[in-house]
Design brief:
Blueprint: E1 2-6, E2 10-17, E3 23-32, E4 38-48, E5 55-61, H1 66-77, H2 79-88
Antiparallel strand pairs: 1-2, 2-3, 3-4, 4-5
Helix pairs in contact: 1-2
């Protein structure tokens, strides 16, 4: 698993979870004002194509903390977690 964060006022955190047939990428955008108040939050879940590295959006959420739930679900459930999310989307 690889995680990287960019920026100061708008923090973008990208976590890539490698898999055998494809990888899953969880991207979290967290924007706060100078007092620490939340301005914007967006968690996006992408399926990475191994041949072209294209990102295919699977799920998106604006509920704060959702990115951690998505990461935990994929680390524990693997491909079954992806299929559950794909079926509900």
């Amino acid at each position: 698993m690889k995680t990287e964060a960019k920026g100061t006022s708008m923090q973008v955190t990208t976590t890539t979870i490698p898999g055998l047939t494809f990888s899953v990428q969880v991207e979290e955008v967290n924007h706060r004002d100078q007092f620490g108040g939340l301005i914007c939050y967006l968690a996006s879940l992408y399926r990475l194509d191994p041949k072209t590295s294209a990102r295919h959006l699977v799920r998106r959420s604006r509920i704060p903390g959702t990115a951690d739930d998505m990461k935990r679900e994929f680390q524990q459930g693997g491909i079954q977690a992806f299929r559950r999310l794909e079926a509900t989307a």
